[in-house]
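User: Hey, quick favor. My workstation is busy. Could you predict this chain's structure for me?
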Amino acid sequence: MLPCQKLLWTEDIRPGPALPLVRAAARSPFSLCGKGGINMSLVAFGSWYDHVSSWWEKRSAQPMLYLFYEDMKEDLKHEIKKVVHFLGKDLPDSVVEKIVCNTSFDTMKDNPATNYRMAPAAVMDQSVSPFMRKGIAGDWKNYFTVAQNEKFDEDYKRKMANTTLQFRTEI
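Assistant: No problem, here it is.
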């Protein structure tokens, strides 16, 4: 594959001022655990459960595109085309391909602007767990015991009982 060409936001792909726009991307709760264990009660922005379910509920009150990590890993180009459609734009395939290249896991993992390597340890302690680890879905299975998985499932079902939000935990 050729190296990615830089792609800058242009008037061609930026949403217009008349379009109220919210985009939310969510990862399965399992993918956030990895080596760090299974305590999902708090993450950097508070309760993971509250954060994710509140954005899910807001999708009916305003234009919102909700994306899922596992879907992006499975077919990034398709998910990017969903974003383009959501923005009401029509982009040439060459631009979509540049976006696919520049938003691939490997490219973003090597980009200091997206991998948090420049963030101070107080903000993102990458010695505990890097912000961008492996770029795969389902890796939680390599860290959870059966008992941990059962405990997590119980906690998830209890805390997410009032939402229709459904996650895939692997591809």
